[in-house]
Automatic annotation (TrEMBL):
Lineage: Bacteria, Bacillati, Bacillota, Bacilli, Bacillales
InterPro entries referenced in this protein's UniProt entry, alphabetically: YndJ-like
Keywords of the record: Membrane, Transmembrane, Transmembrane helix
Protein name: YndJ-like protein
Pfam annotation, one family: YndJ
Amino acid sequence: MNKWSTLLPGAFSLLFWSIIVQPDLIEAALAAAFFLVVPAVLYVSAVSLPGRTRLCWFGAAWSGALSMMMETGITAMVFSVVWFLFTAYIAWKGLSRLMTRGTAPLEETVVDAGLVYVAVGGAWFVLSRAGTAPLLPYTEVIVDLTAVHFHYAACLLPVLTGLLGRRRYYREVSGRPLLYRILAAGITAGPVLTAVAVDQGPPLEAVLVGIYVVFLYWFAGWSIKEAFSMPLFSKITITISSFILIGTMTLSILYSTGRAAGYQVIGIAGMIPWHGAWNAFAFSILALIGWALVSPGPRAAYHSFPVSRLRGKENIAERIEQNQRLHATDGLFASWDTYKKKDFDPEMLSPLVSAFYTHTDRFRMKADVQWRFSLLYHASSYFSKKMKQINVPPTGKGDMDGKMYSVGEQQDGRPDPRVWLRSHAGTGSPVFTAVYSHHTKEDVTYLNVGLPLPVGVMTGILRPDNGKDGALVLTSRKRSDVCGDEGIYVTVGRWTWKTPLQETFNMKQTKEDILEAEHTMAIGRFRFLRITYCLPLMTSQGSRHDGAGRFAGE
């Protein structure tokens, strides 16, 4: 969302509405969230929304504001639902980012959590305007304050924690990634702790609120420390906002401990102006202004790689051969030159490893399949046998055959796509149908492998690395900076999601004419499948090939 074309109309709308309505503090806080805080959060977090979304936001914000000008009931609820739908869209955007990117890097996941919490605030706002407090185990004031809480602290604090993590990364602050992980987990879980505390009441309330406040003190202190490296105005606003947060959180501790001890240090009537108003207006606005001036962006543009257009139904291998204009070829790609980059040198590969990818049809394939649990094989084969895709055999040894084809770039949508059909040597039953291509981002060229599925395509983005003694490592695991495209993705329609699957190929030359490759599949760090390939080089008319040098002259 564009900064000024959004915030200026929002500010004028808030002022105009406030003059007409003269709201109380809770209503003013909610209106400020509609017109200023939520769009500002989207701006500072660099979460892109379509251009037309600005009009949707403006209409939804006014609909929420108008609902507070009505008596609670059906009509007010209908207007509040419009605002809720907009917050639900923001939450979906956060979930989409998470599913597309995966849980790393952590600072982006924290931002996504803040976006999801906005929709919780929208839902509580609907409950408030519908007048459902008598049906709930809470007072009307608690319902209203819960809506405020999820529009402010629950949304804003995770986003600001994410921005802190972004800046920490770009400044290359050496130190303690574990500490940031703990802080991010605490800030993200805080709204849930608060909700449980409100529901359970004392004495558990004081304990849970106390835990959350410790994380907020930590966040405020870290923000003050980070602010010293920022421009002057950001330094001032973020430092002041952090001290305000420390003060208002101290009031929360006094309120909760007072309830647990049975005497009132500060009541709910005092919490609204001192805790709620200072957080809603002073802390939120100052923090957003300070971070907007430095506005660190994400580490990388995630999911900006090409995806194969080829799709399949049942008997995918047969349909690919029947329906596509294929031309026989001998390798997965024509040359290693495309992959030569700063961090990977194909010339360091052993000649036979190099030759496998440019002359794949010259090698036989003997596979030794090892499933970690037979139950996983049976669950997988139930679906894969029907598709005849990713149809990994049970634990055991066997030979595989392969056919290599090139396919038109217009059909696939990626450069120089090559189809590799693998099948059981004895039965001819398909095992894998994969379409190999590549793409380059930030000086890394990845293997971009598409596996057509009945309703979409699975894409493996593999980074080539040099192994020991001329070996090749292809992996979907990201490097420590988690800026790359590596991963296993599933695309259905226009939507692409990152799966928790990880795969690694490790190929090395073991004898003069024999390669050995190990293919492992895992969910996170849990490995559930290992396939060890023996790849002997086939002889041709009595002559023996020993690598890329022999192939080049043919």
